[in-house]
Design brief:
mainly beta; Sortase, Chain: A; 8-stranded mixed barrel; about 30% strand; globular
Length: about 210
């Protein structure tokens, strides 16, 4: 029998391309976009690559740090909205990322999913404004409620049309601890952003 948590995770996967990304920013704003073909475009020789490590015990993420793009944000919990789509962080001046609570916690086996806005309306830039600028090997640190940290290395960055959202790649089962960071991409129009930027990362270390 499928657990309620797993059913919610699967439901979110199907509905994920409907997630809002904080559109309706200031006139003329251009969201960050990945370079064509970006999939860890920097060679492993110039950056450290993620290595396999043991999975961590379940512990909710409370903070996310990405030094390469100067992200240091609290992390809130997100569930499902009344229409069955994934909740997103509120549009607010003090924007922050949100962890989808029906996904594994960072460091557990499976894909842990964290969402953030690229813009937050009249407030300007969102916390994931420069997400598309990440490159293979860049460090992502999720601080956990139990006081430890799950450290990930970026394995690839993809920009995809929302209509072609890669559900299986993002939410599908994997045999190691992985992380997915999701925001919007493309040029902002009256209809919002046409694309999603997705960062894929694998657990490389854990620290107190």
């Amino acid at each position: 029998m499928t657990s309620p948590s797993r059913r919610a995770f699967t439901t979110a996967a199907v509905a994920s391309l409907l997630v809002s990304c904080g559109g309706g920013g200031r006139a003329g704003e251009q969201p960050a976009t990945a370079r064509p073909g970006t999939s860890g475009s920097t060679s492993p020789s110039s950056r450290s690559s993620a290595k396999a490590t043991h999975a961590l015990a379940r512990s909710v993420p409370v903070r996310l740090q990405i030094p390469a793009i100067e992200v240091d944000t609290p992390v809130m919990r997100l569930g499902l909205a009344s229409d069955g789509t994934v909740q997103v962080p509120p549009i607010a001046a003090h924007d922050q990322a949100g962890w989808y609570q029906h996904s594994p916690t960072p460091g557990q086996t499976g894909p842990s999913v964290i969402l953030g806005h690229v813009t937050v309306g009249d407030y300007g830039d969102g916390v994931f404004r420069h997400l598309a600028g990440l490159q293979q090997g860049d460090r992502i640190e999720a601080r956990l409620e139990n006081g430890t940290a799950a450290v990930f290395g970026v394995t690839s960055v993809r920009t995809v049309a929302k209509a072609d959202f890669p559900t299986d790649d993002v939410y599908g089962d994997v045999g190691r601890p992985e992380l997915r960071l999701i925001t919007c991409g493309g040029t902002l129009t009256d209809d919002g952003y046409p694309d999603n930027v997705i960062v894929f990362a694998a657990l490389s270390d854990a620290s107190p």
